[in-house]
Amino acid sequence: MHKKCNSIGKQFTRQWELQTVSLLGIGYLVLFSYIPMLGIILAFKSYKISSGIGGIFSSKWVGLKYFQEFVTDYKFCELLRNTLVLSSLKLVLAFPVPILLAILISECKHKVFKRVIQTCSYMPNFISWILVSGIAAVLFSETSGVINQLLVKGGLTSKGIPFLTAPGYFWGMSVFLSIWKSSGWWAIIFLAAISGIDSTLYEAAKVDGAGRLQRIWYITLPGIRSSVVTVLILSIGSFLGGGMVGSNFEQSFLMGNAVNNATSEIIQTYAFKMGMSEGRFSYATAVDFIQSLVSITLVIISNRIAKHFNEEGLF
Amino acid sequence: MKKGNVLAGILAAVMLLSTACGSMQGTSGETVGTIENGGNSTETENVASSGENGSRDKLTIFVDESWWPYDTWEGAVPEEFSNRVGIDVEIIRAADDNQLPLMVSSGDMADIVCSSRYQFMADGEVSYALDELAEQYPDITWDPDPVFAFVNQAEDGHYYTIGCGFSPDSDYEAYDSILTEGPGFMVRSDIMEELGLSIDSLDDLDTVFAAVQEAYPDMITTDFNCIHKFGWLMNQMGLKNNGYVENNGKLEWYLRQDGLLDYYKKVNEWYRKGYIRTENFAYTSEDDTKEDCVAGQAFANFGYDNHADNFNTAIAANGDDFRFQLITESIGENCKVYNTGAGGRGLYITRSCKNTEAAFRFLSYAYSDEGMKLLMWGIEGEDYTLDEQGYPTFTYDFQGDNSVLQPRGLKYWGWLVHNAIVTGIAEATSTSQTAEARKNLTPYVYRNPVIGLIRFETDSDEAVIDSKIKDMVTNQEAAILTADSEAACEKAFYEMVDLAEQLGMSKLEEYANAKYPQLKAEYDKVVAEN
Fold it and tell me: Domain check: are B281 and B374 in the same one?
């Protein structure tokens, strides 16, 4: 044992520069990710903001009071529905898009065109959601939006379509904007996976008479399977936040309003409102804690399913 | 490696030095000076205090209003105020509504916080009690009317601020003309004239909107302000838009008012006829409607009573010819204006304050008659003169655009601390549209500050119910007003009332009715003794 410790010590001394850097990373993780987790106890306490940070520990225990309050709230079903529908739509509709985009780009033979498409598709990722919501307002505003003006002037509709205000359009707009913003960025991962596939496989398939679609189906897709599974598990882990394309909170917060509230308010924005604006930190923590539990359960289930079918998983 | 060590040493030394300098700045600001003000006197007795080395005290003030027009303590007026009290001020304007709760919970607050969120701030763990500071600093004059102390009193018996917008009845008696401000409604005067229209009753609004929509189909028939909404219409219909309403000596939640459904039906009818756009319900900034109006895109606007004058200044600055005309007469048969507040936003000296003496000195002067008038009206002799009755005449446009007011820092700093009188008499002699509307509205005012004294403790059952009902109403109102038919509007209205009932509206009423008689008796006693 003593010998082992000595050897670890020697190894550490030998690699001290690298170890210091990794320790900084670990320290960062502990400080900003693990220590704040202590705050979860707020969900079980009656915390008043006036009691400050010390109040986290000194407040009275109230058990599951706030959990009960949330699940019996008149908005609970609506919030849960909005969160699940928005997240499911993003998972089902947004997840395949980067894969398709990556395959299309990799199949493109014209180098300049390929680069232009790749650059244009991932550039929106660098635009913040506040700007995207501004762009959406300019494009889709009911009265002054470019799209609606084109529709009205083109005689396709008699008056503007309330894309940004009618509750019925919110989910569609959110998914559409998420795909536009994030697909190009995520396609990079799949493009990297595709570039790692042995090119001789394609040559051999060509010799055997395989067409382009067959090569994609039998070589490209199996070749990127592990990347797809990894990204899928990560997406399911953050399912309630919008999955791979994320941004449920930002979209609901920025594009939600009193008129489309019936479809735009989700658990995250509700928790934010209760915690930050109303100062009900305990209740907000309980609401978020429920969401975290659902997310962890989903990660475990999806990982097991992935292992069962593919013998591949994250843990 | 040695070079690296030397560099690290230099960096560490620089950091230490800058930290030391920072802490020295902090202590140098703690110089003690005293000031006496005349309370309600108008004579300047103040002596600016400064530190031993001539440096002045410095305070930070957090303004918990993200829309606040000013974000720096600059201009002749704030500078004059600083000179009189010997305190420099650094302003931190809230980025959003969420900043204050975070500040309070972290315990890292500005020296002074200006906020209307009494439930967060009026707490001994968050702020210093002003009555205790008055005992601690006897050299600083602090002698507010006992009514102020009573209406601002927290559960613990202390008071932590003096909420603005309120004055005791005795102060009202001192002036013949005190105007009440409130929501307003304005229309484009050029179009009214062109189409030969006039508004003499609420029914005329339908005629006017229909005529304008026909003549100007591409124009927004009417906008409404996201904060004040259709408050003017509610006033004209004799309705209250929040809190409790007194009915036969009992308090009821405003959702039970007779006539509320008629109000919703009327606005919904306008929406269905296309006079109001869906997008307007999504506006979150007052600037949105101002932009529509100033750009000439909107014919009418439901907003505040000073918006017409304010917008006209901006329109004139743009070089445009059209103007907005405020509907200054009361045209509703049941017109009633509820004034049930006991004070809104106020200044709180926080537990993070590093120099409580300077902060208390600041409040002492800001809440004095002289300090209030300085911040609200400007410098006497330069910005205004007083007539024999004490009414001001301004050398500038008091309802003017910010571009007029901001260079001297006029008016808006006064909003941090003003009482009802300073704003109420400001335009008593003015002939502006705003003043005319206020004069006409004043006879319809129903004043009952005791209702405003029914406050809910943070996270109490009542506070939770109140917050949930408010949130529900915000969303449900949009559904009512944008309903496809009158039947759908009515159905959504009754759903809203049912939901409010489920959320505990009756509990709020029980709570209020249990407190109201005692509070009323105490208030009457304090007023009588004063």
Answer: no
